[in-house]
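Hey,
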Amino acid sequence: MANNHSSLGLATQGKHRVLILKDQTLAGDPVTSATQTAIYQKIVGSNPSWFYRPSSNGTPIQMSYPSVKTGLQSTNPDVYYQDQYSFVAGPFVVYGGKINNPVNGQLVNLTPNTTLRYVGITITNYKVSNNVNPQALSIAIPTNISGNSFNISFQVQPATVTFDIYYFAIGN
């Protein structure tokens, strides 16, 4: 109680201030009774990952993902990865990315592989040259959503219109 807990006599007495997860030496997941749950770490591939096991030896839920691809690909100038993903317990993977000047019907394959449950896209950096009607391209939608891929579909734009697509997708 003296380490990582609130002092006795306080309104928060006995509650954790810090939680330290030590290397798991068990071959599998810890055993939980009807009145216990477990938060623990174990190795997935060669990376430590955080898990939660419900009471009565419920199915363990992975709470972290060992290969999150986010942030900068390089610096000076900053270049972000074109596609990025993150893990949300449940087990969901959230994807986000930017596609520069896509073509109508372009296929987008996301990794890691999941079954997509939602895909949303939006047009950005829309540029028109040569006095073309600025409403020449008004919408873009994800189509043919299957497995871990989708197509970008829009009305064909004139050669004088350029734009980028941002996408947001959730898979499990």
